[in-house]
């Protein structure tokens, strides 16, 4: 599903979910403190030194993801992300994969619209071999034709498999409706036509343009000291070019008030609503963040879950969240219900949203939600090395300070009922875009 | 699943039993309270977080005949509150702490869990201990929760051809054991589940002597034990439950196929399965050998099926193998594939069979065996990075008659697997004459690729 708006909070890679969480380590207990280091080669990184388990985890990201794909080569970033264990330097695909296994290096690469990210972990006692291999993959990926063809064929097979899937088609239509001609409307994985035009030279050029020290963000966690971390960072990244070559991505004004209906004989009707979002630098951001969690957060206590699921048994659940891409923002809400109840479900959802704008939040629920958002930081962001490394990279991408957790807590605690009501008015007075997929789905239903 | 956060666990298709201990071992403590409640504490002092799980040794395979789905329905109803902690109290407390609470049901166990700051552990234990025996079910909550479960079923099963087929394959693969019945229940039986059915199940299975509590995180074992004694320790022991003997499978004598044609399918696929011993049942290292066999066939880009069918001939878009060995009763071994457009399903299925025949005829090399073993053992070290995964591992092992020591010994048992054993389990279990194959196809009128 390309629908970046479907089940937003989980579908979006953590690296772009900007403010979903940060933390407060309780002083009497275990504490995780980020520190900033600069490698001998002058590369800045954040790290956490921890010797509990003999492993090292590293996360990194470069600015420039799938939104950089040339118009006729959509899917380039995604295809590139599949090729880093397919040979590097003098090692062809087989040789590289055998070495990976021997060195105990696990690594993965991925692209979202705005960033190209990588992740690796290794055992401490094989750190040097693993670092050398990771460096080779980052600096000298081979992009051999046989590997390109194989990976492209797998993506094409995935597209072929979804050709008749109404969910996939609906997701495409939804993104095109919302984003129009903007790169965010395009499928991350590309299309049959665009994938076929991608050459090894395109991939080499893209790698050269994106993998640059200037926009690199690194987070390292594990059983190593600052000196060892600095050495590792230099080994992996110091030979990359200094400056990236990035195309300017324009802001993406979303289209609201659009109705999309896909009529298909399914046992359930799925409903997605998209409202205008709030950019992170807007003074309304934290009120909107708190309000969205109150309305559509993961808890069964969220207003929409209470109204739709708990009181009326209309659905297994309602979920939603703020989406903040580099050039677009939205507030999205989704659910599934029995087809004959779809209109009722939409009605209940819209009434609940309107009530937030008309009456403001319940004060007790507001306080509880604020406490949830403050407390969720250590639980979600510090629970494993992978989570910590990802958090450190995200915070650097957002330009947030090392101790952002403190500022974040203050911002959440300062949110008032009046601010929440005001932002609810601002957002829910707009006519949302609505996507309905199910038997007999009609645009008029969405328009109610 | 109480609410949509993580997948409903089908015991039959759970992944490899990764995560065991390798050096350095965290000191895992294991206690038994006087009322028969078992307690495991796994320290992980890195962050101020604790995972608390209660595992009841009962699941969907214990649903009475005609009441499929009752274990899972009860799991939903367990959030309706007690006199001491009315509905919403647990969610509200956990929510205020920034934590998470949820539950899941599979064929063998029903599990409730919270992730919270360590300060809140005692209260979580008190709430779980209280709802172990003191659930209050107002008659008016039943209908709406049943409607939620029916929506859950429509969302998880009925909306996708893949899940509709896999339900039917399961019902064919298992001929007599209740694993043939879906965990969530058949729709027509869910519709008839009553408050009394749920309470009868609750009274029979929810007691301290049928529960395992796992605490993983920033805690001290002795302190946890003391908290457990003042909470769980106060719950009265229930009647002794009989041994968990479910109806057993007859010897398989036929090969069977299950086919679903659906307009949403444009690329066909197959999945061929066999019943094999689970870790609980296996003798002479057969479970470890099946894990190794599955990895040799399909773990990573150097695995046999990937190399032969994706890299060399290029006929497969996807291909793989999986051993599901974590169930209490019979496990499964599955081979599956999706042809690349332009190749037929039949050819791919034959090519996969040829790879298995080749492994049986010529065995595996010491070198490929060593690579797979190293990877399994490494995975146990990486697994220590994730406290919830550690809690999950111990919970699965200890509710399937395995011990804390078994978890620690798993790497040694993997090391002991020989090439002959791998070949032997392939010969013994992957017999075409008793395979069950599911086919997911485009509508017949369309031209198949």
What does this structure look like?
The complex is a heterodimer of chains A (448) and B (449). Chain A is an alpha+beta fold. Chain A folds into two domains: 15-237, Metalloenzyme, LuxS/M16 peptidase-like (Cytochrome Bc1 Complex, Chain A, domain 1, 2-Layer Sandwich), CATH 3.30.830; 259-447, Metalloenzyme, LuxS/M16 peptidase-like (Cytochrome Bc1 Complex, Chain A, domain 1). In chain A, 42% of the residues lie in helices and 17% in strands. Chain A has helices at 8-11, 76-81, 93-103, 127-139, 145-161, 166-179, 192-196, 200-210, 226-237, 285-296, 303-310, 342-359, 363-381, 385-397, 404-413, 417-428, 443-447; strands spanning 35-38, 44-49, 55-63, 106-111, 115-123, 217-222, 259-263, 269-276, 318-324, 329-337, 433-438. In chain A, the strands form two sheets. A six-stranded mixed β-sheet of chain A has the order 1-2-6-3-5-4, with helices on both faces. Chain A has a five-stranded mixed β-sheet with strand order 7-11-8-10-9, sandwiched between helices. In chain A, helix 3 runs antiparallel to helix 4 and helix 11 runs antiparallel to helix 12 (342-359). Chain A is globular. Chain A starts with 7 loop residues before the first helix and ends with a helix. Mean pLDDT of chain A is 91; it is low at 1-28. In chain B, helix 9 (286-298) packs across helix 15 (419-429), helix 10 (304-312) crosses helix 11 (345-362) and helix 11 crosses helix 15 (419-429). A six-stranded mixed β-sheet of chain B has the order 1-2-6-3-5-4, sandwiched between helices. A five-stranded mixed β-sheet of chain B has the order 7-11-8-10-9. Chain B has 449 residues and is of the alpha+beta class. The model of chain B is unreliable at 5-24 (pLDDT under 50). The longest helix of chain B has 19 residues, at 140-158. Chain B has two domains: 11-234, Metalloenzyme, LuxS/M16 peptidase-like (Cytochrome Bc1 Complex, Chain A, domain 1, 2-Layer Sandwich), CATH 3.30.830.10; 256-441, Cytochrome Bc1 Complex, Chain A, domain 1 (2-Layer Sandwich), CATH 3.30.830.10. Chain B has helices at 70-77, 89-96, 121-133, 140-158, 161-173, 187-190, 195-205, 221-230, 286-298, 304-312, 345-362, 366-383, 387-398, 404-415, 419-429; strands spanning 29-32, 38-43, 50-56, 100-105, 110-116, 211-217, 256-261, 269-276, 316-324, 331-339, 436-441. Chain B has 15 helices and eleven strands. The chains are: A alpha+beta (448), B alpha+beta (449). Chains A and B meet through helix 3, helix 5, helix 11 and helix 13 of A and helix 2, helix 4 and helix 12 of B.
